[in-house]
C-alpha cells in the first residue's frame, strides 16, 4: 500500500489526467488503486461527468451518483475560484482540519485494504484554502509523499521549480515530478522534462504526453 498527494505547479495543469492515467495503468496491472479529490471548486452538479470528480469516478469504473461523488469529493463549491473565495460566495468555509482528518481516515482505510491511494489537490500547491492556510499546509499535515505535476508551456520551468522549492522547504518528500504536455505549446515536452530533471535531481521526472 502507498498513499500520495498529487499537487500541481498551477491550475488546469494535468493533475486529474495524470491520476486517471495512473488508475488505468494500475488496474491494468492488477493493482488496487483509488483516488480522492476532497476539495473541488467550479463543481457543476448538472454536469458532474464533466468535472474532475466525475473523471476520477469514471477512471475507477464508478457511477457519478450523488453518493459516489460525496464519497471522494465531500467539499464541493460552485464558483471556479480558489476554495476560500468560492466558499465565501456560498456563505461557507473550508474546514481544513476536518478535511485533513477525512484524508487520514482514507489513508488508513487504504492501508488496511492493501490499496494505493492518490489524493488529488486543488489548483497549485500555494492555493489558499482558508484565511491562513494553503494546499501546502494540507500536504504537510498528511505526512505522505507528494507527486508534483507541472506543464510544458512557456514559464512552466519556473513555476514547477518554485513549487518544488516550496515542498522541499516544508520537508515534504517529492516521490516524482510529472511534466504534463500543455496543448498548443511550442515548447517541446522532452526538453522541459530534461531541464526539470537536471535541476530537480535526484527526483525522477517523467513526461506525460497530451491526449484529448
Per-chain topology:
Layout: E1 2-8, H1 15-28, E2 33-36, E3 39-40, H2 52-59, H3 66-72, E4 75-76, H4 83-89, H5 96-113, E5 116-124, H6 135-142, E6 146-150, H7 156-169, E7 174-180, H8 189-200, E8 205-208
Parallel strand pairs: 1-5, 1-6, 2-5, 3-4, 6-7, 7-8
Helix pairs in contact: 1-2, 7-8
Number of strands: 8
Secondary structure category: alpha/beta
Percent of residues in beta strands? 15-25%
Poorly predicted residue ranges: none
Instruction: Report the radius of gyration as a whole number of Å.
Output: 16 Å
**Major pleated sheet:** 6 strands, parallel
Arithmetic mean pLDDT = 97
Helix coverage percent: 40-55%
Question: What is the general shape?
Answer: globular
- Give the ordered list of helices and strands: EHEEHHEHHEHEHEHE
SS field, number of helical segments: 8
Q: Calculate the terminal CA-CA distance, rounded to whole Å.
A: 31 Å
Order of adjacent strands in the largest pleated sheet:
2-5-1-6-7-8
Description:
- It is a single chain.
- By secondary structure, this protein is an alpha/beta fold.
- The chain has helices spanning 15-28, 52-59, 66-72, 83-89, 96-113, 135-142, 156-169, 189-200, and strands at 2-8, 33-36, 39-40, 75-76, 116-124, 146-150, 174-180, 205-208.
- Helix 1 runs parallel beside helix 2 (52-59) and helix 7 (156-169) runs parallel beside helix 8 (189-200).
- The model has no long low-confidence stretch (mean pLDDT 97).
- A six-stranded parallel β-sheet has the order 2-5-1-6-7-8, sandwiched between helices. A two-stranded parallel ribbon has the order 3-4.
- It is globular, with a radius of gyration of 16 Å.
- The protein contains eight helices and eight strands; from the N terminus they run βαββααβααβαβαβαβ.
- 44% of the residues are buried.
Amino acid at each position: 500500500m502507498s498513499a500520495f498527494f498529487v499537487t500541481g505547479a498551477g491550475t488546469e495543469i494535468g493533475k486529474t489526467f495524470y491520476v486517471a492515467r495512473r488508475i488505468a495503468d494500475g488496474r491494468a496491472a492488477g493493482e488496487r488503486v483509488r483516488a480522492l479529490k476532497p476539495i473541488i471548486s467550479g463543481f457543476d452538479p448538472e454536469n458532474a461527468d464533466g468535472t474532475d470528480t466525475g473523471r476520477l469516478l469514471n477512471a475507477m469504473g464508478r457511477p457519478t451518483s450523488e453518493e459516489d461523488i460525496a464519497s471522494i469529493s465531500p467539499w464541493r463549491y460552485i464558483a471556479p475560484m480558489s476554495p476560500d473565495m468560492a466558499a465565501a460566495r456560498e456563505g461557507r468555509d473550508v474546514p481544513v482540519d476536518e478535511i485533513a482528518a477525512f484524508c487520514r481516515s482514507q489513508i488508513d482505510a487504504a492501508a488496511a485494504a492493501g490499496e494505493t491511494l492518490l489524493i488529488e489537490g486543488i489548483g497549485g500547491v500555494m492555493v489558499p484554502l482558508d484565511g491562513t492556510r494553503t494546499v501546502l499546509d494540507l500536504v504537510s499535515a498528511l505526512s505522505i509523499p507528494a507527486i508534483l505535476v507541472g506543464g510544458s508551456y512557456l514559464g512552466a520551468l519556473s513555476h514547477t521549480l518554485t513549487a518544488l522549492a516550496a515542498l522541499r522547504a516544508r520537508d515534504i518528500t517529492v516521490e516524482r515530478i510529472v511534466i504534463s504536455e500543455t496543448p498548443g505549446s511550442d515548447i517541446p515536452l522532452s526538453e522541459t522534462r530534461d531541464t526539470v530533471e537536471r535541476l530537480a535531481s535526484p527526483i525522477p521526472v517523467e513526461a506525460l504526453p497530451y491526449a484529448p
